[in-house]
Specification:
heterodimer; A: 226 residues; alpha/beta; Rossmann fold; four-stranded antiparallel sheet; B: 197 residues; membrane (chain B); transmembrane helix (chain B); ABC/ECF_trnsptr_transmembrane (chain B); cell membrane (chain B)
C-alpha cells in the first residue's frame, strides 16, 4: 500500500480557510473521509493527486511531493469525481475508457484489449460504441470508474462517488470499490459506504476531529451531527 | 458526430480515417467538376453501393441526408428559374451527393479515429502546432455539445418550474455560470487523467 502523508497542510479559498494544519499518515487499504459540507474533506482528497495544492505544508505519496511531482503521482493515483459527466471526455463509452491510455505509449491492440477488459468488468461491454452522454447516471459512474481503473493505478481516490446515484447504483459502486485490490480513499456522506473500512478520518471545520476504526470515528461523527 | 457512429466491421468502417478523409475530399472535388447528369447518376450509384457495403441502416442514412433535401426543395426551383432545369438538377445532385458522402464518413468513423487522423495530418507541422492538443480540443468541443445541451434543458425546466418563462436573464445567467463550472470540472478531470501539461 502507498504511504500518503499530509504534513502541516493548510489551505484557503480566498479568505475562507478550509484546512488547518492537517497532519496525517495514511497507509491502510480502505480509508474513509467524512465531514459536513464545506468541512474541507474534498479539498483534502483532491490534494492527494495534486488537483489542489496546499498553501502551507506538504502532501506526499510514497515520498513524492505531490506539488512538485504531480505528473508522476497522478500516474499512480486515480481520481473518481462526484459528477461523472464532468469526467467523461470522449463521445462513446469505449473511446472514453481508451482516452485514459492515450499517452501511455501502448499499441492499439493493447489499448483495445485493456478497454475491452475494463468494459467487461464493469458491465459496459454491450454499450462500448454507445454515446457516453446517453448512459444512465449509474452507468456513467461505472464508466468513470472503468476509465480510472484501466490505467491500473495503485491508489484510487473517490470524491463522493455515490452522491448522485440511487440506492441500487450506489450499492453497486460501493461493492466495486470494496472489491478493488488497490488502496482506496473514499470521501462520502453515506456512512454505510464505509462498512468494513480499515480507517475513517472525520474532518470538521478544516481539522481532523476523529481518526480511527469506523466504529469509533463514525460514533464521534454521529455525535457531532446529532 | 455525437452519437451518430453506426458500429460495424465493413471495409468502409475498417478503412483508416486519414484515407477516408482524403477520398472524401477527392470525391467531393470530382463531384463538383461533373458536367453531365448521367455522370452524376453514376456517382449516385457508386455512393449507394458504398452505403450498402457499409451496411448503414437506411433510417440512419436518411436522418443525415433528408434535412439537406428540404433545403434543396427551395434552392433547386430557384436555380431552375435563373439557370434552367439541367443546371438546377446538377447543383442539387452535387450537394446531395457530397452530403451523402460526408454522412457516410460520419456514420462509419469513430471520433477517436478522426482525432488520430488530425494528429497524423498535422504531424508535418509539429514544429508550430501541437497536434495532440488540437485533437484534444476537437474532442472536448464535440463532448461539450451534449453537456451544454443538458445544462440548457435543466435550466429551462427550472425556469419553467419557477414561472419565469419569458426571462432571458433567468436563462442566460445560470447557463453561463453552470457552463463555466462544468468547464472547470472538466479541466480538473483532464488533469486527473494525465492531461496536465
Amino acid at each position: 500500500m502507498s504511504v500518503i502523508e499530509f504534513s502541516g497542510v493548510t489551505h484557503a479559498y480566498g479568505e475562507r480557510e478550509v484546512l488547518r494544519g492537517i497532519d496525517l499518515v495514511l497507509t491502510e487499504h480502505r480509508i474513509g473521509i467524512v465531514g459536513a459540507n464545506g468541512s474541507g474533506k474534498s479539498t483534502l482528497a483532491r490534494m492527494v493527486n495534486g488537483l489542489v495544492k496546499p498553501d502551507r505544508g506538504t502532501v506526499s505519496v510514497d515520498g513524492l511531493d505531490v506539488a512538485r511531482n504531480g505528473r508522476e503521482v497522478r500516474r499512480q493515483v486515480g481520481f473518481v469525481f462526484t459528477n461523472p459527466d464532468s469526467q467523461i471526455v470522449m463521445p462513446t463509452v469505449a473511446e472514453d475508457v481508451a482516452f485514459t491510455l492515450r499517452r501511455r505509449g501502448l499499441s492499439k491492440a493493447d489499448v483495445a484489449a485493456r478497454v475491452a477488459d475494463a468494459l467487461e468488468r464493469f458491465g459496459l461491454a454491450a454499450h462500448a460504441d454507445h454515446p457516453a452522454h446517453r448512459l444512465s447516471g449509474g452507468q456513467k459512474q461505472l464508466l468513470a470508474l472503468a476509465a480510472v481503473l484501466v490505467a491500473e493505478p495503485s491508489l484510487v481516490v473517490a470524491d463522493e462517488p455515490t452522491t448522485l446515484l440511487d440506492a441500487r447504483n450506489a450499492r453497486r459502486i460501493s461493492e466495486l470499490l470494496d472489491a478493488l485490490p488497490q488502496q482506496v480513499i473514499v470521501v462520502t456522506h453515506q456512512l454505510e459506504l464505509l462498512e468494513g473500512f480499515d480507517r475513517v478520518v472525520v474532518i470538521e471545520a478544516g481539522e481532523v476531529v476523529a481518526d480511527g476504526s469506523p466504529d469509533t470515528a463514525l460514533g464521534i461523527y454521529r455525535s457531532l451531527i446529532a | 458526430m455525437i452519437g451518430l457512429y453506426v458500429p460495424g466491421r465493413s471495409l468502409v468502417h475498417r478503412a483508416p480515417a486519414v484515407v477516408k478523409l482524403g477520398m472524401l475530399a477527392a470525391a467531393v472535388v470530382t463531384i463538383t467538376l461533373l458536367r453531365e447528369p448521367w455522370q452524376l447518376a453514376v456517382a449516385a450509384a457508386a455512393i449507394a453501393a458504398l452505403f450498402a457495403v457499409a451496411r448503414v441502416p437506411p433510417r440512419a442514412a436518411a436522418r443525415q441526408i433528408v434535412p439537406v433535401l428540404w433545403l434543396l426543395a427551395v434552392a433547386v426551383p430557384v436555380q431552375a428559374f435563373f439557370g434552367g432545369w439541367t443546371a438546377a438538377v446538377m447543383m442539387g445532385g452535387r450537394v446531395a451527393a457530397s452530403v451523402a458522402l460526408a454522412a457516410l464518413f460520419t456514420l462509419t468513423t469513430q471520433v477517436s479515429a478522426v482525432l488520430d487522423a488530425c494528429v497524423t495530418l498535422l504531424a508535418p507541422f509539429r514544429r508550430w502546432v501541437d497536434a495532440d492538443r488540437v485533437g484534444l480540443v476537437l474532442a472536448l468541443t464535440i463532448r461539450c455539445v451534449p453537456l451544454t445541451a443538458d445544462i440548457v434543458r435543466e435550466v429551462l425546466e427550472a425556469r419553467r418550474a419557477r414561472g419565469a418563462q419569458g426571462s432571458i436573464m433567468a436563462l442566460a445567467v445560470p447557463v453561463i455560470v453552470r457552463s463555466l463550472q462544468s468547464a472547470d470540472e472538466l479541466g480538473d478531470a483532464l488533469i486527473a487523467r494525465g492531461f496536465d501539461d
